[in-house]
Amino acid sequence: MLAVERLKFPSFGDDELAEIFEPLKALGSLAVAVSGGADSMALMLMLVAWRQLIGENAPELCVLSVDHGLRREAVEEVHLVAKISRQYGLTHKAFRWSGASFDGNTQANARNARYDLMCEWCAQQQISHLLVAHTLDDQAETILLRLARGSGVDGLAAMATSRTWNSTVIYRPLLRVERARLLQLVEDVKCPYVSDPSNHDLKYDRVRFRQALAVLEPLGVDAHGLVETAARLAHAREALDAMCVQAIGKTVEIFSAGYCILEPEQLEQYPYEIKRRVLGRLLRAIAGRPYSPPHSSLAQLLAWLQVSDKTTRTLGGCLLMVRHSKIWIMRETGRTAFAEISLHPGQSLVWDNRIRVSLSASAENSTVVKALGLDNYARIKPLLKSNLNYPSALAAGLPSFWHSDALCAVPHLNFYEENYVCQIGADFANSGQLTEV
After folding, report:
1. pLDDT of 371-384, one tens digit each?
2. Contact criterion met (CB below 8 Å) for 29 and 93
3. pTM of the prediction?
4. Distance separating alpha carbons of residues 147 and 225, to the nearest angstrom
5. Number of compact structural domains in the chain
């Protein structure tokens, strides 16, 4: 750790810093997302001070920034973050997102793209946690937004302290800290920061709800009260999630190839809310998506389960197929594009947001991982030695490994070229989403 002057904050004592970051103390390394705004700059400085408190056993820290391309100033903001990071002896990694669009979902698209870029890098570097600077005020605004959209328990419980994005934990240590305190912190230490003009642009819902919260405060509806309500609803969500996990254990069989088999008759014994949660979790995990389909779509799917003569159905990036009175849920092929990634010797990555693939360090060549496809499955099917009776639609979405346009392996079909036996691995990375509260 580069020796820098001991950071002290008039508004945050050492005991509070230690309490905020205590859950992270045992980790070997962390990443923090810093945009250049006051909130994220404050989080970075707080982490610097906390690491100074711990000393030589403190987790390593890398600062990540994304040039989202939405404003010309974004490049300069990334440079500012890099400069401040270096002043405190921190490693800085910059990313560039080139997919900006202005279709009405600009902020959501940019947020998802930032998480994709940063979390993929964290996975490559074997950094398990990415810290972000969401505040108590962000939490309150989120609750109002979701209340207006008719959200249920999950939505009104608002943002959890942690959530998994692909295989990386996004951790929010400042959900109980007011935005004003973070602004005061950066000003106390005279740290430069940027002000994003979109934070004041009334065309965005969040900005309008931020102003509405100020109007509601004289009526007793303030950020602290909303966050306390969300905390109580979060406890209710935990209880429902625990029941959901129990139901999955009794009604679903999960396979390493990234699909599952549901017994609808067994599921029927549970209350509506548990059935909806089970289906939502299954679809989210199997499709490799960050969110479940909307409530209305899941309600229609539950009604479909009641129909005696079911036909094949798609929802949320998944294909649901009836076989022997059971429901096979698999990744949908054809409509949504599958990723292609390069895998180098010794690497372990998550492919298609759902399957962790690995290549032995002793492998002589890199491989490309992509979906097998129907044509290639038909070509190798006569050569398969296993007795796996996969539906063609499922086999087409399995990860396959290629080198120089030659198929090297399809692990879930037990198909390997001789040189790749025991060198390639593939396993369902999202199984924890189904079995953990």
Report:
1. 999 999 999 999 88
2. no
3. 0.79
4. 14
5. 3
